[in-house]
Amino acid sequence: MNIPDIRTRWFRGVSAPGARIRLLCFPHAGGAAVAFHDWAALAPPDIEVVAVQYPGRQDRLYDPCASTMEELADTITTALRHELTGDMPLALFGHSMGSSVAYEVARRLEDDPGRTLTHLVVSGRHRPRLPQEEAPGPAPTDTEVMDRVRLLDPDGADVYDHPDLRPMILPALRADFGLLARYRPAHLHRLGVPVTVCGGDRDPMCTVEDLKSWSDVTTQGLDLRVFEGGHFYLQQRKEELLAFVASQLA
Questions:
Q1: Which residue out of 15, 67, 96, 247 is catalytically annotated?
Q2: Which domains does the chain have, with CATH numbers?
Q3: pLDDT at residue 3 tops 80
């Protein structure tokens, strides 16, 4: 039986006939839906995995990148209503920048009578900072962006040094880091769904205490799981992570 791909402007995945829940995945800064390309094959058959394709990268290279978190979350939420139809319950997973995007989309979905949001899973990032905790800052320079990338992903940063690839992939990374520098919500919205938070025990920019800070955004309790690895622990611990996420969604 041929199972059709889910391929819309904003979403990529594989249809899972008979699935009871859809897991919508949000990539890291500079990342794309391809970061989750093999999750569907590793997930249980009752979970349909769909990834968000942000503008400004890969087959959306010429679509303008979002300039604010609000713009990005609003547009994704609208796309959900028009491109992913049906009433299948929805859980969200975000890694790094994707954690903040997933949180903002979750806030909007709680007010959507046509969607049943069941769970938020975040990874590799602290909860959103308020303006009084950390003032918005200027967009980092390209040098500062690359310093952070090499700190977070020393094995994958070499691709940005390729003279043919750099002009195509650096703009999205630059835009995403600028978006994060400006992102400071006026207040924290406490979600009425459980939140699960994951991270690597050697992440140089997200400590276990940072992970615990997500307890401030839920009224339904927080589960924490720390895996062996750095910021991109999920690349090496993919099967272990997916098994844990599936248990959280059971």
A1: 96
A2: 5-131+186-249 (3.40.50.1820)
A3: no
